[in-house]
Amino acid sequence: MPFCPKCKSEYRAGVTHCADDGEALIDAAPDSLDAVSLVEVYAAYRVIEADRIRSLLEDEGIACFSRGLRRAGFPTGAGSEAPTRIAVPLEKAARAVELIEQARKDEIVSPDGAFLH
Question: Is there a domain that residue 4 lies in?
């Protein structure tokens, strides 16, 4: 699957550039994914929510990766309502869930998303 080397988003085969930052996608997973078991912990239904969660987790030292589930190769409506899955290393999943739960309670992110782990 192609990945964006900048934001680490995963795309479907055939997509060549990141819809969020315009970077050319690479065919292999970034080196940081080697020998790391990832688990999807959250489904955000708005790109802005996914970005907030990624920032929150990265600020806490948790590497995270997002996978957009856009249905079209060309993002209509700037992808503002596209569902995005957030994945973290398995050993950091419990802490990531705690941080996301707290962010929802503190109204930093909306409660519209869903926990997957």
Answer: no
